[in-house]
Amino acid sequence: MSPLEQTVPETFINKGLETLPNLFERVEALAKDFATRAAAHDRDGSFPFENFTALHEAGLLSLTIPRELGGQGLGLTSICRVIEGIARGDASTALVLTMHYLQHAHAARNRRWHPEVYQRLCRESIEGITLLNAARVEPELGTPARGGLPATVAERTKDGWRLTGHKQYTTGSPILSYFVVWAQTNEDEPQVGSFLVPRDLPGLRIVETWDHLGMRATGSHDLILENVLIPLEYALNISPVSTTLSFDPLISTWGSLTVSALYLGVATAARDWLTGYLNERTPTNLGEPLATLPRFQTAVGEMEALLFANRRLIYSLAEDIDKGEYEPNVGLQAQAVKYLTTTNSIRAVEIGLQLTGNPGLLKKNPLERHYRDVLCSRIHTPQNDVICQSLGKSVLKVK
Questions:
Q1: Which residue, 157, 261, 263, 294, has fewest beta-carbon neighbours within 10 Å?
Q2: Which domains does the chain have, with CATH numbers?
Q3: What's the predicted TM-score (pTM) here?
Q4: Which residues are CB-neighbours of 37 under 8 A, at least 6 positions away?
Q5: Are strands 131-135 and 153-157 parallel, antiparallel or unpaired?
Q6: What is the DSSP-derived secondary structure letter of residue 245?
Q7: What is the Cα–Cα distance from 280 to 290, expressed in whole angstroms?
Q8: Contact, 154 vs 162, CB < 8 A?
């Protein structure tokens, strides 16, 4: 831990939970274990099933499930810290875990779920390795954050809803037990919303298409639904297309800050490897470690300043949210934090690559993997152009 990291407080607002120090110790131990396999999973594009067995055994899959339903109901600050910690060991595992946390956090705030369905899902997520994530992106539509309606169709029948469609980039698909599928109905007055789809149903299949530059072990494959029948109560929050639903800013805020924390973890892992390398590497013409050179000290100092700024931005806003002390435009503020911190994280890892030269790009060293992973921060919704346009509109007071 660097001196600047110590400015992040150890005590967080978390509804009276008294086991947080032990929790973070478990996170650190898990991250160290995950790091021993991260390179192999990245190289093969294989899914780290064993990591989620370890997360379950450590009690880390139920952190955003309400306490009254058996979970731990942690606040945003601690969830960000957990995600940051896991990402230091394996970014892909951290991303799948983030999506699982977010779906449960959103469900806890969404009172439109069928109570028995939600309670059963929570129980399964506590008792076993039961993960869920949203399935929204489609080949023709692209990201739904930029508008449009899904081509995935839900047909109401006397036996339940039948879903047919094609989803892309379904993060965690090899291990997910449930998919929260975005679809529209084929009724005379179409409705749109989410449907809970269990994995082991006829007509559901995963096509292994994920072969990306970074986050290679996330298993973000395609989801194919062909007349998949689900119970009527598995329609989670559908509403007429013509209806304008009220917007909960905290849902998007959780997404922006947890993703920011994840990539802070990746950049910190890069910093940690770099400091070790610079202290160990002693060229014969120098006779001392590279860490003794002012040029390297200055560059590492720039990295540290970027990571320090990230921590202050992420955790100060997260603490405000946990305390209920936030402004009406908190969603936009969180987007600004995502824009600034992910840009800083990318820059920090780039500095490391510039310092190391060829060794930084060798497959045997983790720096090149951290760089490929941190670049993926630009992909998550909302993207930088959308964030900056929204910020500009808010200042210019135009719609």
A1: 294
A2: 4-129 (1.10.540.10), 134-240 (2.40.110.10), 249-396 (1.20.140.10)
A3: 0.93
A4: 48, 50, 51, 90
A5: unpaired
A6: P
A7: 8
A8: yes
